[in-house]
Every structure is written in C-alpha cells, then in structure tokens.
Predict the 3D structure of the following.
Amino acid sequence: MRQSEEKYRTLIENLGQGIFLQDREHRFVAANAQFCKSAGRAEGEIIGSTETDLYDAARAHAHAEEVRTVLTEGRSVESETEALAGERRTCVRRVLTPVRDATGRTTGVLGICWDVTEQRRLEAHVHQASKMDAIGQLAGGIAHDFNNLLTVILGNLEMMLPSLAPGHPDHALVSSAQSAAVRAAALTQRLLGFSRRHQLDWRPTNLNGIVTEVVGLLQRTIDPLTRIETHLGDELWAVHADPTQLNQVLMNLCINARDAIGGTGQITIETGCVAVTDGPPAKRGDFVRLRVADTGAGMSPEVKARIYEPFFTTKDVGKGTGLGLAMVFAIVRQHKGWIDCYSEVGAGTRFDIYLPRSEEAKVVAAPESLPPSTRIGKETVLVVDDEELIRKLAVMTLQGRGYCVLQASDGKEAVELYAREKDRIDLVLLDLTMPVLSGREAFRQLLDLNPRVKVIFASGYAAEQLSDLEKEHMVGFVKKPYRPNELILAVEDAFPWRSGLRHEVPPVQVCTPPAVAVA
Ligand code: ADP
Ligand code: MG
C-alpha cells in the first residue's frame, strides 16, 4: 500500500500540471507541487483554505462559481483565465471534475490546471499565417484574370497611339488611359507577388545596386527636409533574388520611414555582409543585411506587434493600405530571409532584413553564334494562347513587325500544327496556362518533335516555376501582361541577326511602369 501510494505521489508531484482537490465546503484538501507554485503559496498554507484566501475577489468569485456548478450539477466544468504575471500575460486552462463516493454522491472536486499561453500564441500565429495565405490566394486569383484583361487593354491602346498625331485631341486621352493601365499592371504584379504565383525573375543580385536605384527615385520625390544617407558595404555578397521584388521591399520601407518622419529627419540605408554564428540553426550562415533606419515617430509595442498583418494601418483612410509591410514580409520569406524590427516611440525605427548569400557563381553562358539566316524578316512564329484577345494582339503585333504568324488556341492544336509545319516554324510563343494540353506538356511534345525547338514562354504565374529543362531550352520569357513592345523585344532577341533591321521600324518605346509602392 505504502509503495503504491509513494508511486502515485511521485507521479502527481512531478506533473507539469497543477492538481488539487476541494471538498464540498470549497476547502483545499490536497495540492501538488505545481499547483502550489502557480498559486505562489506553500502547501501548508493552501490546505484548509478556500479560493477566497488564495485569489483576488474577481477570480475567487469565478472559481467558486465553477466549483459550485460541479458540486450541484455533478458535471465537469472547463474554463480559461487570463492573468498578468508581472510583465507577462498568461493564459491558464482549468478542468474541474466531480469526485464521487461509493453511493454516487458528489463529495468534492478534482481540479487540473495548466499554462496554455504558448499554445494560444502559436495558434494565433497559425491563424495569422493562414489569413495571409487566404488573402494571397484571393489576390492571386483575381490578379490572374486582370493580367489577361490588361494585356488586351494596354496592347490596344499602344497600337492606337502612333496613329494619332501628338496634337490630336484624342492623343492625350489615349495616353492618359495608357498610363493608368500601366499603373494597374504594376498593381497587378504586386498582387501576384503577394500570392507568390507570378514568375519571379531570380538572379544573383547586388543589393547596393537596388539601394542606388531606389534612393535615386526617392530623392526626387521626398521632402527635401528628409535627408537620405547611404552606407553601402564594400564587396557585398550577391543574394539570390528577384531585383524587382527587392526594389519593392526597400521602397516600402523607405516610404514608411518618410511617413514616420513627416518633415525634418533622416533615413539611413545600410548594406553589409554578416556571418551569423549563433542563434537558431535556420538563422546561421552568411547573410547580406539591408538596414533601413529612420529618426521618425517610432512605434508602441501594440502597433509593432501588428505591423506585418495585411490591412493593418495607423494611417488615415486613403493614406495607408496596410499592405506595405505584409508584402515586405512575404517577399523576404520567399527569399528565405527574415526581418528584425527595433522601434520605440520617439526614438525612431530600424528594420534589418537578412537575405542568404547566394551560392551561385555568376556564370553567363557564352552567346551562341547563329548562322546568318537567308530568310531575314520572314521568320515564322507560332503563337499559342487560349485567350483569343491576347492571341490576336500578339498576332497583330508580330505581323506588324514583318513576321509570318501561325496561331493555335491550345497546346494540343499547337503540337499538331507544329508536327505539320515544323520546317517552317522558327519560334513558338507558348502560353503556360492553357486548357486541354498545358503549355508545359505541349512543350515536352514539341521537344520530342524537334529537340532544338525555340520557345518563348508567356505567363504571369510562378506556380509554374520553370523546370531546368524548360529554362535550358527556352529562348525567352515574357511576363503577362506584356505590351507589344515587350513581345517584340523578346522575339527579336531570339533572332539576333534581326537586330540589324531595327532601324527600319519605329523606335521601340519601352515604357517602364512607374515605381509604385504600397505605402
Ligand atoms: P501602411 O504604410 O499602408 O500603413 P504598412 O504595412 O506599410 O502599411 O505599415 C503598417 C503600419 O506600421 C503603419 O501604418 C505604421 O503604423 C507602422 N510603421 C511601419 N513602418 C514604420 C516606421 N518606419 N516608423 C513608424 N511606424 C511604422
Ligand atoms: Mg507602408
């Protein structure tokens, strides 16, 4: 008996959960070590006392109420109580069950309680992450459709413009419609970036170049009272990144800094190589650090805790979208890096972004020299896209440039056509997302027909991150929405001997979308 009792006592005393027994008069008759610890009393003080002796009035009342329910109704009661333990907010879960004697009468209450603070924190984290994912998916779905529509809108406008003399009353209308559409395209790209579905342009990137570019842009637009200072690290390691996305990251951080300063102050941008040797394993290794510090208003801990939440903003309606830092977070995570933020009200803010050093050596393949073609200017391009409007636009653009154009509205049709006409077709422009036979499958079948087939892929998605095989064999990639000029440039790149002809056609105006940041 004694041995057995000893065994149970050891078990109970070593449990991480607090365990106690209360009788019908609410007096504690037993309590294990963990319970005594959480109540902050010695066992001797606890035995014989009731809730009122141990807790403040409100908590004692709530606990007494629970015990009463168990005693009178003979059923279990569960509850969760939040309390402030010093600085730390804790959450404690309690389960009370009735204790019965041999006749079935409830003689007391057995209670178990444990700290669920960490669990609740993790749950909130997961909840937050899934919210971000849901928004990403929603945004990506809409953005994909928008992309297609914008390709058509932009293309048509671009074709209209040259036929209108600059003084023509419609010229201004069409060109303002065009710049609005370019802006919309930039927005769509951001949404796609958010959902991680658009084609990212990964390459070894030097962050110093990005900083110089963004600072150049900002200096022209920011209040002259706000100084921008840069300290660029020497011999900075390259990072494996999409430069456009990093541009976006820096732009957002700087615009937030500008808003926090609101007049006189300083933004300092720093880059440097950091070798992290301690801390969690995932954060060890060689990193390039991008630091953006400002002398602005700073943040309270409550604000700081929520800054990466999509749509969280402290700015007035119309001023903030609350998407800036959510994007920054998504992009940095996509680049396998992380962000540290230091901020205090009145003492400014500092963001440190760590991006892993690129392993990649800069290997640039030697350009393959092609024999001069005897069919200059008569190359035949097969345009494959299931979206009729986009296909038409591509066909018109290429025909206008002197190419012969064949078209197919899905992968299957494209493969059949290629099988028949492969001696004539010099290049295939292949949309990646198509019904019947996807661009991806069609490409494989094209390779079977001709291992040297020249393909330019068109897509707005990154879900279809190209495989090595595809990258090796493609001669170009156009990101949707593309404008006629971008398509021409990509196609022309596939035919280097054609560049000598470029002077014969109107100059290609490449209008880069204005750098807009979700600030
Ligand atoms: P938005 O700028 O549209 O409000 P963000 O996601 O970019 O959305 O930022 C969210 C919030 O984080 C801002 O509203 C602001 O309260 C806070 N914040 C971000 N950067 C800074 C900064 N550098 N200094 C002070 N507060 C900042
Ligand atoms: Mg912002």
In short: The chain has four domains: 17-115, 128-198, 207-362, 380-499. The two ends are 72 Å apart (CA to CA). Residues 361-376, 499-519 have pLDDT under 50 and may be disordered.
